[in-house]
Amino acid sequence: MNNRLPPAWSKHLKPGPTPKPRLPQVSLPKANSPSRAQADELLLKQAYEHQQAKRLDEAQDLCLRVLARTPNHPLAQYILGTVYLGYDDEKALRYFARAVGEEPNNPYYHLSLGEAYAKVSEFSAAIKHIQYALELQPDLVEALCALGRVYTQFDKPDLALPLYEKALKINRDHPRVRVGMAAALTGLGRMDDAALYLKEAIEHRVDIPAAYYDLVQTRKFTQEPAELQSILRELGNPRLASEATQILHYAAGKVLNDLKRYGDAFDHFNKAKQASGYKFDIDLHRRWVDSLIETFTPDMFAARVGYGNASEVPVFVVGMPRSGTTLTEQICASHPDVHGAGELSKLRRTANAIGLRTSSADDLNQSIMSITEDLSKTLAEEHLSYLRERAPAALRIVDKMPHNFELIGLICLLFPNARIIHCRRDAIDNCVSCFVLRFTEGHSYNTDLEALGLYYREYDRLMQHWNKVFPGRIFENRYETLVEDQEAQSRRLIDYLGLPWDDACLRFFDRDGSVNTPSRWQVRQPIYKSSVKRWKNYAREIQPLIEALGDLADV
Q1: Boundaries of CATH 3.40.50.300 in the chain?
Q2: pLDDT tens digits, residue range 32-80?
Q3: What's the pLDDT band for 199 if we cut at 50, 70, 90?
Q4: At a CB cut-off of 8 Å and minimum separation 6, what does 279 contact?
Q5: In the chain, what are the helix, strand and coil shares in percent, each to the nearest 5?
Q6: d(CA 526, CA 508)
Q7: Which residues lie across from 477 on neighbouring strands?
Q8: The CATH number of domain 284-426+471-527, selected from 3.40.190.10, 3.30.1540.20, 3.40.50.300, 3.60.110.10
């Protein structure tokens, strides 16, 4: 049986269409009672088809049936990995690793294992496995593009460019090539060059929604571009998939917002939210915040003096998304002794592994009680090694995963000397800036204005708790203060990091390196004030948000 299946792109690589998969050649049995191997082939072909159609429960059940009678079947392990990727990345890693162990010379298994490592920000392991896939099959375009993506995410977009150039020579019309090249160029600040590749993709009808979405992010529009009418025509297609509809509405909304046609823009943003279909349980989230507050108390930390690692290398930039976290990281990382590592998932993975993502206060307390002093030191050392991999000589390494504000208790348990920078912004501006952007399902609170306002209140309540538990330790970097007096606030930031001032921090927009967040265009510009009180452009549309924010809304 040929197990060299390509990865299931539609499931875990977004945005864009799915290349037609090459399924294994299956010979139907002629006898009434097929052999076990033949039966396994039939079941796995069905499982793969279910996976491609996103019928994940059905795909999982069929794979488990195969594994029940043929333990460690590599293709069953592989397909299970594709099922879990994006939903439970730890399980996906385990299944892909087992597939590689059973069939170590299959390039697709190494490729998918590498992509799984990339999703959890384990970039060295990702690079190792994708490079091995290319050793096994040098012309594998999916692997060239995947390695290019990893290098872009790993703050090495210059290494991505030759990979995409090679992929272009092999197959210029592969859905990942032009968009990937554009992402690497954008990471390097070469917006005009990126736009050329995206326009090529559109002309060739390749990856249309993603290409339009990325194209409109490369510049700010002062006059209506021809692309706007093209996007609207694409949205008129009655057979457009929900994900493509969502992406195109965001693209149209972004252009209309630039043109100050705010009512039309907000209509597109609302339609994008409706197309996503995401739901958020605010009551469940509120109970989890209650559990965090009940568990992480001053007494709990007083009983754990000496836990963790005393290193001053880790710096955590936290806050709501769109609160200035990318800007803050860029200012810090412009200092020669600071490395900006971007948004890292390592802390979240550690939290998940020890059971912090539960809604029960009893369960949460048991998870924390299970962390002995030795375990805290081990976890901290693992995390430091993970950071050092990115910048061995840096005095400070910045992780700017915004939602680590939920995990400040864990941060302080592992790193009692870590710096924590809390980015805060006008509540209404912050929420509106979230609402108009495309977030993943993990940010489903961003799908509804009321839910978004209520979620913000829980964020504020939790941050008030952390400030009480760690008085004076968390540096609050208010966006409006930074915009009003960039140099004074930047100096305070660098002083908080315990480093001497460097004038390079005032020209953060000139620094080399990759930027992989929705702020990638903005952080290539000097600081501007147009985002302050931006919400007033949408005052009529956002009343549910303002009501949900209550006394946190500065109207």
Answers
A1: 284-426+471-527
A2: 445 888 889 999 999 999 988 889 999 999 999 999 999 999 999 999 9
A3: very high
A4: 444, 447
A5: 60, 5, 35
A6: 8
A7: 423
A8: 3.40.50.300
Identify whether the C-beta of residue 419 lies closer than 8 Å to the C-beta of residue 473. Answer: no
User: How far apart, in whole angstroms, are the C-alpha atoms of residue 306 and residue 328?
Assistant: 30
The CA–CA distances, whole Å, from 7 to 48, 260, 419 equal 10, 42, 40
- Report residue 54 as tokens: 């996103």
Name residue 550's amino acid: G
Are 336 and 394 spatial neighbours (Cβ–Cβ below 8 Å)?
Answer: no
Rounded mean pLDDT, 232-251: 95
Does the bond joining 15 to the residue before it have cis omega, within 30 degrees of 0? yes
Dist. CA 112–CA 85, nearest whole Å: 9
Q: Where in the chain is CATH 1.25.40.10?
A: 1-137
CA within 13 Å, CB half, 112: 35
Q: Report how far residue 320's alpha carbon sits from residue 323's, in angstroms, rounded to the nearest whole number.
A: 6
Closest by CA position to 408, among listed 498, 319, 328, 288 = 319
**Domain 1-137 is found in CATH 1.25.40.10:** yes
- Residue that is written with structure tokens 């399902």 in the block: 441
